[in-house]
């Protein structure tokens, strides 16, 4: 208890010793708020999906919780991560998973007793059977034969017992060292402690076993902390959903999935009895883009550059070959971080084929906005493309100094918004391009031509569930989010190739329905659109919030502070769509004389790739990979690109939606084909596998 008290005191000190405010006077902020009163009143008349009514855990202790979270983040990144990295190096993953099985087995009394307290006698009987089988046949629980025999388990504890008894609305609470919890679950940890056998065996047993559990997810947690602008908010949402999911979704599926494993229960509860036949559904697969090797899942090497006029340095990630090689610069999609899973997936694909690789965060990601651009409000395509090109130029100069002779021909590859920016880079005047790094190849993947229309379509996807009556909407959205979380446990283990087949011409044209069994897809067309739109809306709201830390235009309802953000977040998600962001943020900013005095009409025209069509055609080194059922680009736009660039330079797939086919073998072949000729040699023997 003394150690816990020490952590609690430290976290309180963290909370009281720091406050982040925007660098503007109170008078300036108040004046802008008065000026925007009419605008706010207009926004608040719009019908909106209020995510604040989802009844996830209320966060009335947010400033305190954020202080504890910051302290936990320090412990995780600077103490736990170095120690567990050494532990992971010494102890194989299979051994750590066996220890994890032992830990779960030895906590049998916690689950057994709480099932009894909840009156779940059938679940208590299953727990008893599991414990008996795993303790004997499974050798003290180091192995899990019970799951193979269909004996499922539910993560029951006293917190969930309190919920069953009527404690329905606890407050979110972050515990020192222990992480996300709630007032109800924190109180429940006390009886759980006394029900736990390790408590009576050895005082160090529980911490050691808990550390082993942490070792299995430490890389993912640290990666999330490093890439997410507000990992606290993400952790809160996930904790709420996981607790709800454990208590509801699996319970609802119990009668229909008797004797099945936990994974099968999840997918049975989620199925909508259809395959992902539409572009929106297939786009969901993009969430599962990730490297195939554990080495690339880890944090890559990184360096920093100094952008003129910006005080702090911009980080970038790199994977540099030890021999002379061409280099690929990856420009991510809307809001993506340089270490995002899709970025690492592309980096791995290129690196394993003998290319060096560099990645930079998107111009509409918090990191680039703070450290890479002097633009306060990103979103004007030509300006963002030039800011990105400026950063890549400085990076290229630094790498050539650090690695003389190793950097050969250069390609820039962008996906989604990044692909759109790559096309704008390729469309620059020769005189303008002279200032920047010269690329031998420009590759755009799933790139929109009309970026404003594409982003507005994503906003329309967010509104898909507005057709549901208001009184039912929160429940439907919550169920859908839980459905997505549960489905991720299943689909993370499935190859995208299982859902697609290739015809004789090599085009991806239809779904694989019978060759090998795969689970039914968990979301229908409307739900897939909403999930896609929701991700975009949440990303946009975070971006808008970061812009207000640079220049407050008085649109937010509450004071800007690091320790209290919930009210402002809810407001932005509820009221600010991309049209509003363009009208209230981008257009007034670029209408200023010092930013070029660009009119809204000029901004719209110049943001469309067709405006730069002749220059794009003249480049001669542009290659595209597009999906015909991608919602960010029309069939007419694809035809226009084929006419401008030539069909040989535009590879199209019939299916895949927006980035949903990246995990397929055929996509990787097309990806490498766009830059294969930049290599002046065969792949070195040590890279052949």
Low-confidence stretches: 1-35, 255-273, 506-515, 685-689
Give the number of DSSP strands.
Answer: 12
Helix content: 40-55%
Name the beta content range: 5-15%
Based on CA atoms alone, the radius of gyration comes out at 26 Å
Question: Which of globular, elongated, flat, extended, rod-shaped describes the shape?
Answer: globular
Give the oligomer, counting copies of the same chain as homo and different chains as hetero.
single chain
How much is the average pLDDT?
A: 82
The computed structural class is alpha/beta
Distance separating the two termini: 53 Å
Q: In order across it, which strands form the biggest sheet? A: 3-4-6-5-7-8-11-12
Count of alpha and pi helical runs: 32
Q: Main sheet, how many strands, which sense, barrel?
A: 8 strands, mixed
């Amino acid at each position: 208890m003394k150690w816990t008290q020490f952590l609690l005191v430290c976290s309180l000190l963290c909370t009281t010793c720091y406050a982040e405010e925007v660098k503007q006077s109170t008078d300036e902020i108040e004046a802008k708020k008065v000026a925007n009163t009419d605008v706010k009143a207009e926004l608040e008349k719009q019908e909106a999906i209020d995510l604040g009514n989802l009844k996830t855990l209320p966060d009335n202790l947010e400033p305190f919780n954020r202080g504890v979270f910051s302290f936990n983040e320090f412990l995780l990144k600077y103490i736990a991560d170095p120690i567990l990295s050494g532990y992971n190096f010494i102890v194989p993953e299979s051994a750590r998973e066996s220890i994890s099985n032992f830990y779960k087995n030895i906590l049998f009394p916690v689950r057994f007793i709480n099932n009894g307290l909840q009156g779940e006698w059938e679940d208590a009987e299953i727990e008893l059977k599991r414990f008996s089988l795993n303790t004997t046949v499974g050798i003290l629980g180091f192995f899990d034969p019970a799951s193979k025999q269909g004996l499922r388990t539910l993560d029951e504890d006293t917190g969930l017992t309190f919920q069953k008894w009527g404690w329905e609305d606890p407050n979110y609470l972050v515990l020192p060292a222990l992480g996300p919890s709630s007032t109800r679950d924190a109180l429940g940890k006390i009886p759980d402690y006394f029900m736990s056998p390790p408590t009576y065996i050895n005082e160090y047993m529980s911490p050691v076993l808990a550390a082993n559990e942490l070792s299995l997810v430490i890389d993912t947690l640290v990666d999330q902390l490093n890439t997410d602008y507000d990992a606290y908010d993400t952790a809160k949402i996930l904790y709420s959903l996981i607790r709800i999911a454990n208590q509801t979704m699996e319970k609802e599926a119990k009668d229909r999935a008797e004797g099945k494993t936990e994974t099968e229960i999840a997918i049975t509860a989620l199925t909508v009895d259809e395959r992902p036949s539409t572009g929106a559904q297939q786009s969901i697969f993009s969430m599962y883009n990730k490297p195939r090797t554990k080495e690339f899942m880890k944090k890559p090497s990184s360096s920093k550059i100094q952008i003129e006029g910006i005080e702090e340095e911009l980080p970038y990630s790199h994977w540099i070959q030890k021999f002379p090689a061409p280099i690929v610069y990856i420009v991510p999609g809307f809001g993506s971080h340089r270490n995002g899973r899709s970025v690492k997936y592309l980096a791995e694909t290129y690196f394993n084929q003998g290319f060096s690789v560099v990645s930079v965060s998107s111009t509409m990601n918090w990191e680039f906005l703070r450290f890479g651009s002097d633009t306060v409000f990103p979103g004007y395509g030509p300006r963002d493309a030039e800011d990105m090109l400026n950063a890549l130029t400085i990076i290229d100069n630094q790498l050539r100094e650090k690695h003389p002779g190793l950097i050969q021909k250069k390609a820039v590859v962008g996906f989604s918004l990044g692909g759109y920016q790559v096309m704008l880079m390729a469309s620059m005047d020769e005189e303008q391009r002279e200032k920047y790094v010269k690329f031998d190849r420009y590759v755009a993947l799933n790139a929109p031509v009309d970026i404003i229309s594409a982003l507005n379509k994503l906003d329309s996807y967010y509104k898909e569930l507005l057709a549901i009556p208001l009184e039912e909407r929160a429940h439907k959205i919550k169920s859908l989010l839980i459905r997505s979380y549960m489905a991720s446990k299943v689909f993370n283990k499935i190859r995208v190739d299982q859902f697609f087949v290739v015809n004789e011409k090599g085009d991806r044209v239809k779904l694989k329905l019978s060759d090998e069994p795969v689970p039914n897809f968990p979301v229908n067309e409307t739900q897939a659109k909403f999930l896609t739109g929701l991700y975009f809306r949440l990303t946009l709201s975070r971006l808008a919030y970061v812009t207000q830390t640079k220049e407050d235009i008085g649109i937010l309802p509450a004071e800007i502070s690091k320790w209290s953000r919930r009210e402002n977040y809810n407001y932005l998600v509820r009221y600010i769509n991309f049209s509003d962001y363009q009208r209230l943020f981008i257009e007034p900013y670029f209408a200023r004389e010092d930013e070029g005095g660009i009119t809204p009409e000029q901004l719209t025209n110049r943001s469309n790739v067709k405006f730069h069509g002749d220059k794009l055609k003249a480049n001669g080194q542009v290659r595209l990979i597009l999906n015909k059922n991608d919602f960010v680009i029309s069939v007419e736009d694809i035809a226009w690109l084929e006419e401008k660039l030539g069909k040989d330079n535009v590879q199209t797939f019939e299916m895949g939606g927006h980035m949903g086919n990246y995990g397929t073998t055929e996509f990787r072949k097309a990806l490498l084909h766009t830059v294969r000729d930049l290599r002046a040699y065969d792949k070195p023997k040590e890279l052949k596998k």
